[in-house]
Each structure stands twice: as structure tokens, then as C-alpha cells.
Design a protein that fits this description.
Blueprint lengths: L11 E5 L4 H12 L3 E6 L6 H9 L4 E5 L5 H15 L4 E4 L14 H29 L2 E6 L11 H21 L4 E8 L5 H9 L12 H8 L14 H12 L10 E4 L13
Parallel strand pairs: 1-2, 1-4, 2-3, 4-5, 5-6, 6-7
Length: 275
């Protein structure tokens, strides 16, 4: 689907973890179509460069320092948005944390950290935005999942959290549909951001140089044929951004409780899988 350059004009969108990686791709895509952005993270240094990029496009972008693990900070994020723009049309729950570790080596603190950011953070932000969307009688919540919800070595904490978010997505879609609030999920495929490249390189090891997830590595991975993906390439943050634009737009006005895989067909298996 090709959207007009005004497809999201005037819509107010909150993106948690919106300063880097997939979040940044979502922000860029929505800003180009006229959305007014609010991006949130625990670290302002991760947000300001992306906000400046949006402003350079001629768009609007409010930066809010917020820890999604704290319900009061999520409430303040929503209130700051309403104070600035008067409404919230879309919430993208993108903030996440992960690191690879074997289940037997995962500490209680490591478990809590990932589950608290991924699962609890998604609920905290969704619950905070609900009263605003209920009053408006409209809204779209988009939850970003991950291939880790299928399980896999080194991801027991993230797999558990992301699977929980899918259950949350279905439940909120059922409960909040009567207020015309749509709740959907996107599972990205292999997107070589700085964080994911670092995890790919590390495997289950914990001691590696800090620069292993650099921009050069990302470009190399994106340009390499990938036979495990039917469409033959890795994805980009803008691929996920386009999917989020669709779910935020009026084109998806009768879609809720949906799980959109944006993965080049990876879940199906590529030519090398024998499928």
C-alpha cells in the first residue's frame, strides 16, 4: 500500500524507545506522513538526535524522559503529550531490553529487568493511555514483539515477556474494542540494529569488544544475501515503520487483535530449510 504524504497528518503518536533502531525507523516513517511525534526513553541522549532529524524534516517531535517500568512516569508521559497536543491517537510500545544468556545462568535481577521493561512497560504505557483514548472514543496501540517469542537459546526472559505481550494484545483488543481502541502487534524479523547485531555476534558469550555492533557491521549484514529468508534479505527499521504506519492509519480501522509478521517470510523457512 502506498500512503499519501498526509496519511497521518495531525495524528499524535507516542513511540517508546523511539530514539534508536526500530523505534527510530517508526518515528521517521510517521513523521514523513505528517504525524506529530512524542518519543520517550530513559536516556535523553538517545532521543535528541532523532528529534532533531524529525524537526529537520519540518515535523514536530516532543522528547520525554521516561522509564516505562514506572507507572507514574508512563502517566506523566501521556499527560505531557496531552498538554502539548491535546490528544493521543497512537501508542507504539517499542521500548525493550534483552541480552543473550543461557537459562541456567540467568540471574533473578536479569530476569526481572527484561520482564519489567518488555512486559510490564507495555502494560504500564497502555494502561496510562487508556483514559485518553476512551474519552476520544478512538485510538491505536501497537505492540512490538520479537522472534524471541518463539523461543530459542539465550532468550528465556525475552521469550517469556514477548509471549506475554501477545496475550496482553489479544485481551486488551477484546476489552477495549467497545471504545474504538484497536490493539495490534508486529513481530519484526531479522533487523540488524546496533543491539541485535551485538547479540548476534555475542551468542551466549559475555565478553566482547564494545564496537562489534557498529554501523559497518549493519551495512555488511543488510547487503548480504540471506538464504534463510524467502525474500532474500534482512529487514530495515523502515520496513517495520511502514507496518506501524498501516496499523496507525485509517486503512486499518477495522483491524484489532492482529499479529503482523514483518520478516521477509523468515518464519516460513528459506530455500535452505527444505520447505
Amino acid at each position: 500500500m502506498v500512503f499519501s504524504d498526509k496519511a497521518l497528518e495531525g495524528k499524535v503518536v507516542i513511540v517508546t524507545g523511539g530514539g534508536t533502531g526500530i523505534g527510530r525507523g517508526i518515528v521517521h516513517g510517521m513523521a514523513k506522513l505528517g504525524a506529530r511525534l512524542v518519543i520517550a526513553s530513559r536516556s535523553l541522549e538517545h532521543l535528541e538526535p532523532t528529534a532533531e532529524e524529525v524537526r529537520d524534516m519540518g515535523g514536530e517531535c516532543l522528547v520525554v524522559e521516561a522509564d516505562v517500568r514506572a507507572p507514574d512516569q508512563c502517566a506523566e508521559l501521556v499527560q505531557d503529550t496531552v498538554n502539548r497536543y491535546g490528544r493521543v491517537d497512537t501508542l507504539v510500545n517499542n521500548a525493550a531490553g534483552n541480552f543473550r544468556v543461557a537459562a541456567e545462568d540467568l540471574t533473578p535481577n536479569g530476569w526481572r529487568t527484561v520482564v519489567d521493561i518488555d512486559l510490564n512497560g507495555t502494560f504500564n504505557c497502555s494502561q496510562a493511555v487508556f483514559p485518553v483514548m476512551k474519552e476520544q472514543q478512538s485510538g491505536s496501540i501497537i505492540n512490538i514483539l520479537a522472534f524471541t517469542d518463539l523461543g530459542g537459546p539465550g532468550n528465556v526472559h525475552a521469550a517469556s515477556a514477548k509471549s506475554g505481550i501477545w496475550g496482553m494484545t489479544l485481551t486488551l483488543a477484546t476489552e477495549w474494542g467497545k471504545y474504538n481502541i484497536r490493539v495490534n502487534a508486529i513481530t519484526p524479523g531479522s533487523i540488524p540494529t546496533l543491539g541485535t547485531v551485538r547479540n548476534l555476534r555475542l551468542g551466549l558469550r559475555s565478553e566482547e569488544p564494545d564496537d562489534i555492533g557498529g554501523e559497518d557491521a549493519i551495512k555488511t549484514l543488510q547487503g548480504s544475501p540471506n538464504t534463510s529468508i524467502p525474500l532474500g534479505r534482512l529487514g530495515t527499521p523502515s520496513d517495520i515503520g511502514q507496518a506501524a504506519i498501516f496499523l496507525a492509519s485509517d486503512a486499518a480501522s477495522w483491524i484489532t487483535g492482529a499479529h503482523l509478521h514483518v520478516d521477509g517470510g523468515k518464519r516460513l523457512g528459506g530455500p535452505s530449510s527444505g520447505n
